[in-house]
Design brief:
Oligomer: single chain
Helix content: over 70%
Number of strands: 0
Structural class: mainly alpha
Radius of gyration: 14 Å
Distance between the termini: 20 Å
Shape: flat
Order of helices and strands: HHH
Length: 63
């Protein structure tokens, strides 16, 4: 749970920074957010969640 909140917070900060610096425009950012919400309600969401958890577990073993 803590990793998920940290990842969401980091991604949110990254999107805000990219929008503010001009590397990412507002409308494409909103489209990406809507795509993420749509993707979360599909059947592939558990596979994506498992992949992110696996990558996070692999990274934690490196340190």
């Amino acid at each position: 749970m803590a990793l998920t909140i940290s990842l969401v917070f980091f991604a949110g900060v990254l999107v805000v920074v990219l929008v503010r610096t001009g590397y990412l425009r507002l409308w494409p950012a909103l489209a990406a957010i809507l795509f993420g919400f749509s993707l979360a309600s599909t059947g592939i969401a558990p596979a994506i969640n498992d992949a992110i958890s696996g990558i996070a577990g692999w990274i934690s073993t490196l340190g």
